[in-house]
Every structure is written in C-alpha cells, then in structure tokens.
Design brief:
mainly alpha, Na+/H+ antiporter like fold, Rossmann fold, globular, disordered C terminus, membrane, Na+/solute_symporter_sf, transmembrane helix, transmembrane
C-alpha cells in the first residue's frame, strides 16, 4: 500500500470502508448511509489508524452530489417544479428565516459573537442537504411522488438562497460597504443568465447532442456523454455563473428529463450516483473529530436541537399551514430535518475569513451528523404526529369532493390505492375486463390524467378515513394497496377493514414481516413481494418446461408464495 499513489489508496480505502460499515448498518436494520458516516469517522484524520486524503475525498464527494442531483433532475421536469412553487417559495423562505433566527439567537448567547457572525452561524443551521434529503426520500419510495416534488422545490429555493448567502457572508465581518448591493445584484443577474441559457439553448442543444451520440450505437460513449453533460454543465454553472455545482447539475438533469433520452440517461448514471454518494457521506464523517465532541457539549446539543426544530419542525408547521396533507408534510419535513454540504461551505468560508471562530466547527458538524443519524426516528415521530392532526382540506379539495360526489353508486368494486408503476398495470388489467374500480392517488398530475381518461379517481391520501369513505369502501369487494411504505399500507388496510370487515385485500410488500402481518389479519388475502414474484414466475415457467403439470406447478407456486423465503429454502420444492 505504501507504494500506491495517495489518491488511489484514498479511493480504495474510502470505498472499502463505506462498504464494510454500510453492510454492518444494514445488518443492524439501519440505513446504509449511517454506516457511511461512521466509516468516515473511522478513516478520518482525527481517528488513530488508517487515514485518507481529505481534499481528494471532498472533491469526489462534490462529484457525487453533482451526479446525485443530476439524476434527481432527470425525474423532475420544470413543469413539476413550477407546480409546487406555491408551497416551496413561501415555505422554504420562511423556514430558512425561522432556522436562521433560531441559530442567531443561539450564536448571540455565545461569548464574543456579535450579531453579524451569529447570523452566519444561524444560516449554517438552516440549510438542508439536498443529497441527504433525496437519498432519504428515495429509500422510502417517495422521491417521484408529491412529497418528492415539494421537497425538491424547497431544496432548489434553499440552494438559491445559499448563492446569495455566499455573497452576503463578508458583510458579517464589516468589510462590506457600498459594493454589497452591487454584489447581490451581480449574483442575481448571473443566476438569471444561467437559467435563461439552460432554458433557451440547453433545452435544444443538450438533448440534440446526446441524440447524436446515441445514434452511434455505442453504449460506452453514451454513458460517457451523459457524465460529461452532467459534470460539464455543473462546472460551467459554478465557474462562470457562481451557481453551486450541485444546482447546476440539477438544472442539466431537469432539461434532459424533458427529452425521450431521460430514462436511459438515468439508467446509465445510477451506478455512479450510488458510488459517489457513498463517498459524499464518508467525507461528512471525516470532518467529525470525536475528541472534540465534548469541548462544547451544550452548544453542540443546542445546535442539533436548532436543526431538528428550526428546519424539520418549522418545515412541518409551515407545510401544514400551507394546507399540504399531514402525511406528505411529515415526509417532506423529516427529509429536510438535517444540514449538510452547503452548511459546510458557509461554515468554512466564515471561519476562513475570521467571521466565525474555529471552535464552532464542532457544533455545526455534530448538528449535521446527529440529525442524519436521527432521521429514521424523525420520520417515525413526524408520521405519528401527522396521524393525530385533524384532516384539513388541501387546495382543490372542493373539486375533489365534487368528483367524489359524482362517482356512481359503486358496489362489489375494487379500490386501487396508488397509481405508480405497479398501480398502472393493475388498472390496465381491470379496465381490459371492464371490472369496476376507483383509484385513490395523492399525485395531482396523475389524478388529472386519469380524470381526462374518464377513470373514477379521488385525489388525496388514502390513510385518511374520508378518502376510503368517498371510495365507497363499505360496499367494495377488493382493496388493492400498491403504496411503497409499510406503515401507510397497514393504515389503509385497517381503515378499510373498519369500514368493511368482509373486504378482501392484496398489498404490495417488501419484507416477510409485512406478509406475516397481512396473513395474520386475513389468511385469504395476498401480499405480493416484488422479488419473490419474479422468482415464482421463473420457477413456474421452469417447472412447466421441465414436464410438471400446470396444476401441480401452480400448487407449488401458491405454497411458496405463503412461505418465508428462508423456510422455503429449507423445506425445498418437494415439501
């Protein structure tokens, strides 16, 4: 190892540590990113033993954030973001203001910190990490839904505020004068110029260029071209327009997402996104000095509380005030209840210019580290709080109520909850045979599409009793739940059974425990696990081609479908 180039050694050690600790975190039923953070602490410069090059790792981390945001942008077209500006603009602005004021109050309580530096300290505690939020939403299957769109609109506006923050930070040191207003104006003009360039020229040039590469028939060149576009636009945004690297990559993805090449571009970059995102979280862990954690324990704990309340709590309250449904508000707020890369940039800039003392680096890092570690608990707590909030009609609820009233009196019908990739196929099968069903979907765009197709649909969250009542659950024959989250699926099933004890149920499941729960409620129901159904489909095909009678093969499939994977492996097919 001593003869290996330092950068190569850093890359190998960083990835190996991320894998090892990520695997351990998964074994403990925790998100892998917790393992990545611990890996960073283990191989960081403040921990005895192996240490890797911090500057190189931070560079790779910035690449990771850029690729991650590029991938997110591919799935969020500009019209999707414009649809949530009503919530994102006032909500994110107010949340950053609240978080900054709370952090400023904490800073003012510290000895030797004036109002200006305290405000910079407050701003570092008010900006959520886009990389952390998108990964958290992706792990819970909520990135492509309404919660994901609101979160991305919120985060994009936060990033724009950071651009202004980087310009205004010198003002806290008293060095700004008459030129500060001009500097802010220049920053805004650069941002507007970049956005105009992307919308006017980039919308035409980038898809055209990738189309030419795709016609060459070389998948390798297409993958390379996608990466060049993602990182090239991000670098141009940073170097020429003063826009953050991550925000530039997001804009590039959003522009390409409008073309028919978007899905393939996303598929080609996904492995790279996952690898470099892991390096990002390792780099965050490397910043933490375990020996300095107790230097300012009270300040560190208060900084963590400020992040959780000033960002997570304020976001939840503002979303509820903006009439977002409680369940979606809880998901968005929980994903935002943390700080990350842009907070570190602001912190290092302020420390480098002598605005903040070096002693505040620890509280900011601990606030970030602790908030990320607590994210699973934050999601559960806010979800529980959302369930206790009386439902208030969101914007457009009057239209939804009229739609519910216009539904024909339905009996012996199916209720399809969720119209994503799974639900759309189920609906197609039901429509093919003219079977009566009604869709419950919380994505407004999908609801409008179904309405134009004359499909009975209700816009709202099915975890609320009013939605199932509007869907005539008391007279329904079948409930089909395709939601990705287990707690949401359980809530919907419980509400449906309360309204109609005899309703049959089929749910989308991800773990054996979810299957066991459904069968404990009703042995005649069906819990479908994606990977298991793929295996059963292949097994059924194999048995029939190998001479097993169709009826016998089906009996085996039915038997294995109700067994745990481990039990089936032990028992064997002949059991």
């Amino acid at each position: 190892m001593e003869h290996a180039p330092p950068f190569l050694a850093s890359l190998v050690i960083g990835l190996a540590a991320a894998f090892g600790f990520g695997l351990a975190a998964r074994a403990l039923r925790m998100p892998p990113l917790v393992g990545y953070l611990v890996a960073g602490v283990a191989i960081g410069p403040y921990t005895p033993g192996v240490a890797i090059d911090g500057a190189f790792t931070r560079t790779m981390a910035e690449v990771g954030v850029g690729l991650l945001l590029f991938g997110v942008g591919l799935h969020f077209q500009p019209r999707d973001l414009l649809a949530v500006w009503r919530v994102a603009v006032p909500g994110a602005t107010a949340q950053v203001a609240i978080g900054t004021l709370m952090g400023t109050a904490l800073g003012m309580a510290l000895p030797g910190l004036g109002f200006g530096p305290a405000m910079v300290f407050g701003l570092t505690l008010a900006i959520a990490s886009t990389a952390v939020a998108t990964r958290a939403l992706e792990e819970r299957g909520r990135l492509s839904g309404e919660a994901g769109r609101i979160a991305m609109g919120w985060l994009v506006l936060q990033d724009l505020l950071v651009v202004l923050g980087l310009v205004l930070v010198p003002a806290a040191s008293g060095e700004a004068g008459e030129g500060m207003a001009g500097a802010v104006l220049v920053a805004l003009l650069k941002l507007a110029a970049f956005a105009t360039l992307m919308l006017v020229a980039g919308r035409r040039l980038l898809p055209w260029a990738l189309q030419q590469v795709a016609r060459s028939g070389s998948r390798e060149l297409f993958t390379l071209a996608v990466v060049v576009v993602a990182l090239g636009v991000a670098f141009e945004a940073s170097a020429l327009f003063g826009v953050s690297f991550a925000l530039g990559a997001f804009f590039a993805g959003a522009i390409l997402g409008e073309s028919d090449l978007g899905h393939q571009a996303a598929a080609e970059t996904l492995p790279l996104q996952r690898i470099f995102a892991a390096i990002f979280f390792v780099s965050v862990g490397m910043l933490l000095n375990p020996a300095r954690l107790l230097d300012a324990p009270v300040t560190s704990i208060l900084a963590l509380a400020t992040v959780l309340i000033g960002t997570g709590g304020a976001s939840f309250a503002l979303l509820i005030a903006l009439r977002v449904t409680p369940a979606i508000a809880a998901t968005v707020a929980a994903s935002l209840a943390q700080i990350g890369e842009f907070s570190f940039v602001l912190m290092e800039l302020a420390i480098g210019q002598g605005i903040l003392p070096d002693s505040l680096r620890g509280p900011v890092l601990l606030g970030s580290f602790g908030a990320i570690l607590l994210m699973p608990l934050t999601f559960r707590l806010l979800a529980a709080l959302a369930a206790r909030i009386p439902r208030r009609a969101p914007p457009g609820a009057e239209g939804r109520s009229r739609l519910a009233a216009s539904l024909p009196r339905m009996e012996d019908h199916a209720i399809l909850v969720g119209y994503g990739r799974v639900g759309v196929l189920v609906a197609a099968a039901l429509r093919r045979h003219s079977l009566p069903f009604v869709v419950v979907e919380d994505d407004r765009h999908r609801t409008e599409v179904l309405t134009r197709q004359s499909v009975p649909v209700l816009w709202g969250n099915a975890t609320q009793p009013e939605m199932l009542e509007a869907a005539h659950a008391a007279r329904a024959r079948l409930l089909i739940v395709t939601l990705p989250l287990a707690w949401e699926a359980r809530r919907v099933v419980e509400l449906a059974r309360a309204a109609n004890p005899g309703i049959e149920v089929t749910v989308r499941a991800h773990h054996d425990s979810e299957v066991d729960w459904l069968y404990a409620q009703d042995s005649s129901g069906l819990a479908v696990m994606g990977e298991r159904e793929v295996a059963l489909g292949i097994a059924d095909f194999a048995m029939r081609r190998m001479g097993v009678a169709a009826g016998t093969a089906q009996e085996t499939v039915d038997l294995l479908r109700r067994r745990r994977v481990a039990d089936a492996a032990v028992a064997g097919l002949g059991a």
